[in-house]
Design goal:
Layout: H1 2-7, H2 29-39, H3 45-52, E1 60-63, H4 73-80, E2 82-85, H5 89-100, H6 102-119, H7 126-138, E3 139-143, H8 146-153, H9 157-163, E4 172-175, H10 178-183, E5 192-197, H11 207-218, E6 230-233
Parallel strand pairs: 1-2, 3-5
Antiparallel strand pairs: 3-4, 5-6
Helix pairs in contact: 2-3, 4-6, 5-6, 6-7, 6-11
Amino acid sequence: MIVDVLSRLDTRRPWWSPLRAWLPGHTHWDAASLAAAAMNAPIPVAPLLNALAPASCPIRFTSQSALPADMAYEQFIGQNGECPTRDNLHDFFNGLCWFRFPKVKTLFNRIQCQQILRQGVGQRRGVVRDTITLLDEGGLFLQAPSALWDAIEQRDWRRAFVKERALWQQTHVAIVGHALLEKCVNPYKAITANVIRIPSDTPTCDIDGVMAQTLENLLTEEQLQAKPHCPLPVMGIPGWDAASENPAFYDDPQVFRPPRP
């Protein structure tokens, strides 16, 4: 049961910070889980998410069985305002991302639906849909000083995580990818995100709106000729893995890979 797994989470870990209110032991969880449990036992994910959802969430959640076999998942959400949901951690964290980034998630869905109408549903999704999928599953937004961002873009991991380590105190990290959150349930060194920069003057309270506008401008075939995201091994972020206090942590070339020639 996913509730058992969620109840064992160490919600003090930094990646849970923006989502903490919707996790066991925090503000919204107890009342919501009791309300969902009254509907059925064990608790299905869809009614649990509906009970947890803030007023700002633009969709409701429904059972995966509601999705017709001949309809794309994204089309169903766009047409019905309901998200087909399986009883697993992956889809639970997708719901939390709808809570945290309603404007970004709505943008992703709108562009996906537009691309499906234009191109149909085939084996080749195209660069726009592929990029949305990468970000929706494994995306991370990062607000950081220019010196730190430059080091990340150049894959200069020693500079990013050792030489410029103090600059991480000036950053804001926001995970938008639900598969990335799922991996953080049982964290391991090689977890890697697709990171996009948050404009430096963005207030923390307005990241969702600013990033939705930023991504709307980026998510076109013309703009995506230059890839807007780059990899970030997230367990290298100071405070995310205690072992990273030792600089030798970053000597692993299988995780902290140099740039391709």
